[in-house]
């Protein structure tokens, strides 16, 4: 004898107010960015001072290392609640947008060093921080728009 099975009610997950979810996401993104900034800042200064790297190359190498770290932390922590289709599109888009962020950093550093002729460490670090700030703002906006998209309904 067969019985009619009734569908089980869906489990409800308590919803978090939108502003709290945004603040959590922004705070974790900020922390990941802070770690990435430390990697970039100290790596760039180390390369420039101890290894004699050019001001532009000394920004690029640590930023690439920071980008790898940031991708993993953002994917598995900051934006873990957002979908990933597993196609590789996310990774390619992430690194392409980070290339734009890196370009912003390089332009700030290069402009200060080559155009303004400011070669001291204070000017270098100010340009580096300005580039990191502008690049981070671009990255946050672009990650939400194109990389870590909202979960499908």
UniProtKB/TrEMBL annotation:
Supply the alphabetized keyword list. Answer: Membrane, Transmembrane, Transmembrane helix
Q: Topology versus the membrane, per the UniProt entry? A: Multi-pass membrane protein
Q: Where are the transmembrane segments?
A: 21-44, 50-73, 94-116, 122-141
Cellular component, GO annotation: plasma membrane
Q: What is its main location?
A: membrane
Name the Gene Ontology biological process terms: polysaccharide biosynthetic process
Location of this chain's protein in the cell = Membrane
Q: Where is the GtrA/DPMS transmembrane domain?
A: 28-148
Give the family this protein belongs to, as stated in its UniProt record.
Belongs to the GtrA family.
- Its protein name is GtrA family protein
Organism for this UniProt entry? Actinomadura rubrisoli
């Amino acid at each position: 004898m067969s019985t009619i099975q009734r569908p089980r009610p869906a489990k409800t997950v308590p919803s978090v107010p939108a502003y709290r979810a945004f603040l959590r996401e922004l705070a974790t993104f900020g922390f990941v960015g802070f770690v990435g900034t430390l990697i970039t800042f100290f790596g760039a200064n180390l390369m420039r001072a101890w290894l004699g790297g050019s001001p532009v190359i000394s920004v690029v190498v640590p930023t690439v290392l920071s980008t790898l770290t940031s991708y993993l932390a953002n994917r598995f922590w900051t934006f873990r609640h957002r979908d990933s289709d597993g196609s590789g599109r996310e990774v390619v888009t992430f690194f392409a947008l980070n290339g734009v962020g890196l370009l912003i950093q390089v332009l700030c550093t290069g402009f200060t060093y080559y155009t303004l002729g400011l070669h001291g460490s204070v000017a270098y670090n100010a340009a580096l921080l300005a580039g990191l700030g502008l690049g981070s703002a671009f990255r946050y906006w672009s990650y939400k728009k194109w990389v870590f998209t909202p979960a499908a309904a």
